[in-house]
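Quick illustration, no need to memorize.
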Amino acid sequence: MCDSTTRRLRHQWLALPLAGLLTIAGGAAASPFYAPPAPDEDADAFSGEAELGYTHLSGNTDSRTLIGKGRLTWLTGNWMHTLRGEVRNVARDGETSAEQYLVSMRERYDFQGPHYLFGFARWEKDRFSGYDQQFTAIAGYGRHLLDGERHRLSLEAGPGFRDDNISDAGDETLAVAYSALDYRWAFSDTASLDQEVSIEATDDNTTSRSLSAITARLNSRLALKLSHEIKHNSQPPESADARTDHTTSASLLYSW
C-alpha cells in the first residue's frame, strides 16, 4: 500500500473516535499527560470525563473562545484503555486566531505494585503551528512513586517516533525520546491541584507541554476547573506564528 493511502486511512480512523468524543463532550480536552492514575479497586469498568469552556465578549472587543475535552476509560483485567480528544477555537473580530484538534488512544498494562507498561498513538492538528498535522506513537515504562490519599506522583519514559506533515515541505519521520510527570495533591475532600508535564525530544526540536489545574467538585458528577496550559516547540517550522502557546481557561467538568 502506498504511503499516501496509508496516511489517508490512518487519518480517517483517527477522525472517527474524535468525532465521537466531541459529541459526548458537547463540543469536545483531557490533559497533556497521557497516563490517568491507576484505577481504585472498586472502580467502574467504564468511565469518562467531558470538559467544556466557552467565553464570548462583545462591544469594544468581539472575541469568542471554545475549549472542549473528552476522555473515555475502560478496564479489562490488568489493561486500561483510554481514548481522549480535544478541540480549541479562538476568534477575534471575526478572524480565527487559534484552531487546534487532538485525538489519542492509549493502552496500559499494570503489574503488581507500582510498575506498568504503556503505549499510545496521538494525532494532532494545529492550524498556526506550521504543521499540517502530526502523528506520534510512543511506548515505554511507568512507575507510581506516590500513591496516597492526598498525594499521587507518577513518572514514565520511553522511545517512539513522530511523523510531521509540514506545510509545503512534505512528510518527515523523527525518532522521539519521551518522558512525563503527573502530580496530584488532594488538599481537601472536594478540591485538588494537578501538575502535569511531558517532554518529547527529537534531533530537530523538543516539544514540552505543561498543565497546571485546580479542580473544585460541586457534586459527585460536576466540578469547576481552572487551568493554565503551556506548549513549547524549541524549533518550529518557519511558518509557525510562535514557539509557545499559552491557554488559561475556566471550564465545567462532568464525570461519569
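The chain has a mean pLDDT of 83.
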